[in-house]
Amino acid sequence: MAEFVTVDRPEPGIAVLRFARPPMNLIDLQVARELAAAAEEIGAEAGVRAVVLYGDERVFSAGDEMAELARLAPEQAAAMAADLQAALGCLSRLPQPTVAAIAGYALGAGLELALGADRRIIGDNVKLGLPQIRAGLIPLSGVRRLSLLIGPGNAKDLVYTGRFVEAKEAAALRLVDEVVPPDDVYVAALAWARQFTAGPARALAAAKRVFEAGTHGHDRARGEWAELFETEDRSIGTGSYLAAGPGSAEFVGR
């Protein structure tokens, strides 16, 4: 039984992966492992078509649990690095579309976790940043993904300085995808996720794998495209497209 992570299903097809470790939702190794375990279970559920990541209503996450990191000996850090890095990237491995609903702060490991989502929706009072450099550390999981998202120059600025970014700048950098009033963050995330509850699950998962392949995505797309011809949704989709145009298919997720 997880201590800090829960999975809710507020409506058919949507899973809400929520972590709560008051008061600041700091992410230690236990929280990271619980998130990764819950994400793996969600990823295997055929009935889940989209996933919302949500922290506390006031603070998504204020970052790394520095009290834990301060106690680590070098050999302990080396032993846990791969495990923690994989856990913080757990959303990127889900086959379903994912959205992070962010309130208050998304700092350090919290922002790294959100970077693995397909979309980030924040309140207009949110601050984001990767301040690990100020503790003599670097982000463990987010550097490559941040660089691909906002460009190497902007990514280096945020990582090297550790500075915080407010909502307006975050949107301008394309660090986030949507800015809404603070009280609307969760509702907006659900609305985005709802688009995919009746979608072609296998095709969406294939598209995610191509995006995750990065520079090898062009090659990966060939195999993923060809394999979709084995799915029921491809038959349904192409047939309905010919008969009634795009948007008319009733997909079955197989």
Search tags:
254 residues; 16% strand; six-stranded mixed sheet
Number of helices: 11
Sequence of strands across the biggest β-sheet: 1-2-3-4-6-9
Portion in helices: 40-55%
Class computed from helices, strands and strand pairing: alpha/beta
Query: What does the main sheet amount to?
Result: 6 strands, mixed
- Strand-residue proportion: 15-25%
The shape, in one word, is globular
Instruction: Give the strand tally.
Output: 9
Mean pLDDT: 95
Element-level helix/strand string = EEHEHHEEHEEHHEHEHHHH
Cα separation of the termini: 31 Å
Low-confidence stretches: none
Keywords: Lipid metabolism, Lyase
InterPro entries: ClpP/crotonase-like_dom_sf (IPR029045), Enoyl-CoA_hydra/iso (IPR001753)
Protein name: Enoyl-CoA hydratase/isomerase family protein
Family: Belongs to the enoyl-CoA hydratase/isomerase family.
What does this structure look like?
- By secondary structure, this protein is an alpha/beta fold.
- It contains eleven helices and nine strands.
- It has a six-stranded mixed sheet, sandwiched between helices. A three-stranded mixed sheet has the order 5-7-8.
- The longest helix is centred in the N-terminal third of the chain and has 15 residues, at 29-43.
- It is globular and about 60 Å long.
- Keywords: Lipid metabolism, Lyase.
- InterPro entries: ClpP/crotonase-like_dom_sf, Enoyl-CoA_hydra/iso.
- This is Enoyl-CoA hydratase/isomerase family protein.
